[in-house]
Amino acid sequence: MAGSEEDGDRRNVSDVVGVLVLGACASWSLITAAAHDGRPEGVLLALLAVAAGYAAGRISGALLPVAAPCAAALTGLGLTVGLPRLTPGPDLVGPLGHAGATAALLTLATGAACCAAWTTGSPALRLLLRLLAVGIAVASAALGSASGLATCITVLLCSLAAGRMRHRGPGIAGLALAATAVTGLTWAVAGNAVPDGLADALRGRLTPHRIGLWHDALHLARKNTALGVGPGRFGELSTTAAQSLLPDGKPHSAPLQIAAEQGVTGVLLLVAAFCWLLYALWRSPRPTPVVLTAGAALTALAAIAAVGNALSFTMVSVGVGFLAGLTTAHPLIDEPAGK
Question: Which of 187, 240, 254, 329 could cross-link with 212 by S-S, CB 3.0 to 4.6 Å?
Answer without folding.
Answer: 240
